[in-house]
Amino acid sequence: MSTLPETSDLLKSVTRLFVSSLPLGEKLGGIIESISKSLGSDQCLLLTPEEIVPHGFLNRVAQGKKPLWANETSGRERGEVLPEERGLLQESFGLIPLWDEATFRGILHIGFSRNHPFSPQEIDLLLLVARVLQTLLGNEQIRREEEKAREELQGLQEIGKAITSTLKLEDLFETILTTGLKIFRARGGVVRIEDKKKGELKTQYSIGDYHQAPLDRRIAKRVFFTKTPLSLNRSGEGNSFLSILCAPFLLKGRSFGTLTFYDKETHPSRFDERDLHLLLMVSHQLSYAVENAMAQYEISTLAREQEKRVKQLSTLWELNKALLTTVHLERILQMTLTAITIGDGLGFNRAMLFLVNEKTRRLEGATAVGPNSAEEAGRIWSALSQRKGNPSELITQLQPPLDKDSVLNSLVKGIGIPLEQEQCLLSRTVLEGRPFNVRVPQAEEGWLQARCERGCHLGSEVGCYVSEHLSRDPRVYSFASVPLWGKGKVIGVILVDNLYNQNPITDEDIHYLAMFCNQAGLAIENAMLYRNLEEVHQKLKETQTFLLHQEKMAALGELSTSVAHEIRNPLVSIGGFARRLDRITSPEAAEKRYTQTIMKEVRRLEKILEHILTYTHEESVALKELDLRGILEESLSMASEGWANGGLRLVKEFSEKLPMVRGNHDQLKQAFFNLIHNACESMNGKGSLSVRIHPVSKNGSSFVRVEVEDTGAGIDPENLHNIFNPFYSTKENRLGLGLPIIHKIVTSHQGQIEVDNQPGRGATFIITLPAQEEKGNEKDFGGR
Amino acid sequence: MKKILVVDDEESIRFLYKEELEDEGFVVEIAKDGEEALAQLPLFKPDLITLDIKMPGMDGIEALKQIRGIERQVPIVMCSAYGEYKQDLTTWASDAYVVKCADLTELKNTIRRLLGLL
What we know:
The complex is a heterodimer of chains A (784) and B (118).
Chain A: H1 4-19, H2 24-39, E1 43-47, H3 57-64, E2 68-70, E3 92-100, E4 103-112, H4 120-165, H5 169-184, E5 186-195, E6 200-207, H6 214-226, E7 230-233, E8 243-251, E9 254-264, H7 273-323, H8 329-341, E10 350-357, E11 362-369, H9 374-385, H10 391-397, H11 407-413, E12 416-418, H12 425-432, E13 436-441, H13 457-469, E14 476-485, E15 490-497, H14 507-584, H15 591-616, E16 624-626, H16 628-640, E17 647-654, E18 661-663, H17 665-683, E19 686-698, E20 701-709, H18 738-748, E21 752-758, E22 762-770
Parallel strand pairs in A: 17-19
Antiparallel strand pairs in A: 1-4, 2-3, 3-4, 5-6, 5-9, 7-8, 8-9, 10-11, 10-15, 11-12, 13-14, 14-15, 16-18, 19-20, 20-22, 21-22
Helix pairs in contact in A: 1-2, 1-4, 2-4, 4-5, 4-7, 5-7, 7-10, 7-14, 8-14, 14-15, 16-17, 17-18
Chain B: E1 3-7, H1 11-23, E2 27-31, H2 34-44, E3 48-52, H3 60-70, E4 76-80, E5 96-99, H4 105-114
Parallel strand pairs in B: 1-2, 1-3, 3-4, 4-5
């Protein structure tokens, strides 16, 4: 039996422990120990509700809410006792269920290995101590709940702080999830937001090893569409998830995303009602912040897009400005490609331009810009990046010689693709009038294969060229072709690639390029029209000059014919009678000189008349196949009569094989004679006369070229442009019809006359006459 | 003695030709245009006629046609100040074409050739 002092000791120590600041475990241990010591029991335990097995004996005691005192004589009806409970049912024992109103806190167990009937004092004492334990446990529960509430409050506060601290979407999501993990003691979390375009949920941020299982997505989807939070706890099998907590982001009755946490750190993992409510609160609170951040994000994305667009447009504007600086076709082509390749422009590595030839229905390579190697590319780019200024200034500054030695340029210039070759990408670009963006995957042997079947030029030329330069680990080769639109038709194609930096070509790049090409196409077309216009204009000018000349000649002809007629008759009489006088005058007489002078002057006048008439009278002459060598010989012998005695040296260079020329024998003889005669006169009886005749070929046609070179004074550059003008002469006593007559004869033979003038050293006149193409065009000298 | 009819509108030329050809031993008669020449023809009965082309009234070409209508056989030498009539097909009805020149050698040679005196 217990004594009073022991009882008071027990109460003293229990009271001391109750009010101490020791942790709960130590307090409970101390009290249990004191009970055991005070009663001298063999065993004293505090069983927690978790340790009490359902359907067992102890559970029945707990549900009975009444203490049980068992010894040899009483409390023996026990019903079913589970094996794990048997150790507690000793010789004598007491079981006191601890109930705190409706909450079961555990069972206090006191066991004796011997028979020990509990005295009423002992029972009172134990019931009292049990009340103490019950209170301690209840306090602890309250304290824990308070702590949890405080933690939750703190978490909510943190979330609140977080959502006001940042507008950056990613940061916000990260804060939400990390704080959420703390509040819910979860292992992972996912934020999903609705993708409005696709109408589905998209994972925006996740922490931890979140479930990729379809179930997880299905739950989120369900929460999203039903706008109802969901808590799911499932006993785990293997590695599958154990619990999940999911709530929608709701705003004005519309859901726009979900917030999910899963796998509670506690064991077993279990989210309770309280967690669900809390999550609902959190998600509600977050909705505004997330929505704001999303809007902000969208605005800044839009702003960035806009900025990019503006930059693109201003670049386009700059490039177009550059294109407007000239109408010179070559320059415009060059600038177009430069704009496409420089970094401040469209930034492609290489660009090639092909133009449609409407007559031949072929696509012909016009020009290309691009470095020959990656090293060269690097050099050029770094050099360009150091230059300052707008693209328009840069482009106009860059001079064409950039690619003078470019392998690519000369390669592209040699490419001609029939438009009928429909399988060729470039032809298709023209025929279909749309861009192509092609990505060629790496071939098995490590070489890129860009060639298409049936020997397309792109395949066999550009493609091969590309392969050669991509032998260093090429992953892929991307290229794109864009049509160049003129007014209503495709006038060419631009081919671009990123051979060196291997940047992918996006659809946006192509769109941008196409926009630029529309402008460039117009500029190119304009330049082409301008060039045609210039050509036509030039022809018109030539025709006009020719017509003016003809008109002048016609008037001159009329005039000179009547003058000649009027003058010739008197001249005949003067000359004729002078001869009669001369004949009857004795050689010694002084009058002999007079008659001689009259005769000489009349002869000169007659000669001038002859010149005038030859020049002005179009003689419809019979054309024959002629060997110019024979004619030249005749002219030479005619001219040489005058200088048989002088210090003139004649050099003849006649080709052995010479095509025939169709023409008038007498006219050509006259022309050559005049030419040789002039040459001799310019040398004043001293010097060297070279006469050469050779066959030449020009633009696929053959010609005969006659050169007469003298070592005289040459022609005064001031007079050079006038030498073929009739009645223009520098020789005071000459009428200057020699060269105009030659010119007239040569042009009426569809030939050309040029002069290579070296003032002070001599002049070379070059006559080119079209050769007869037909049979017998190569005759040996003298075969006429 | 061969008889030559010189037809020319220029008096000096007629005078020169007459003097020169008479020196060569021909009998020379002159006419100043086509009409005169045609009038002279039956009276003088020339062995050869020199005919200027450009004359007032009936010109050389017209005269040539008319003379040929009367006298088929008599040789006719066309004389002109310039060569453009060489291309005129009607002058082909003449026997020779000589461009007028102070040096009458060519004319004289032509006449002698046509009269078979060479």
